[in-house]
Amino acid sequence: MPLAGSALLVAFAVASLPWSAGLLRKPLTPFDLSAAAAVAPGYALLRAAALVIPQDGSVVTCTEPRDAVRESYFYRFTVALLPGRRVLPTAMYGQFIDPGDWRDAAFQIVVGPRPAEPPGEPLLDTPWGSVWRRVPR
Questions:
Q1: Is the previous residue joined to 65 through a cis bond, with omega within 30 degrees of 0?
Q2: Closest by Cα among 63, 133, 70 to 105
Q3: Which of 11, 20, 30, 107 has its CA 20 to 30 A from that of 42?
Q4: What is the reported pTM?
Q5: In total, how many domains does the chain have?
Q6: What share of the chain is helix, strand, coil (3-state, %, to 5)?
Q7: Residue 3: inside a domain, yes or no?
């Protein structure tokens, strides 16, 4: 009887695995197979951006199209994934911040498609977004 119960538990566990996600494929980010999978592309972009933004650089992270809630999340991710950089927020608590507060950033990360008006010189272009050296305005 204990063997039958164990087999039943194993069957339930195997049935609950996310087969469509490719069990033998390593996830790109910690969010790929979670309920927060929508932030995975931005997370991957920020990890890649860490390689092209210098340690003493100032940076902002925006989304395309602009979304204050998502930009609030990505601000916190940017602080965590780009240590040594001066990270300026474009939104906090789901509210946009006045652009004058972050206009002096030297670099801009754009999560999503390329912006219609490029913010400067492109440094990195990925399927998840792009990284730009900003042109002073």
A1: yes
A2: 133
A3: 20
A4: 0.77
A5: 1
A6: 35, 25, 45
A7: no
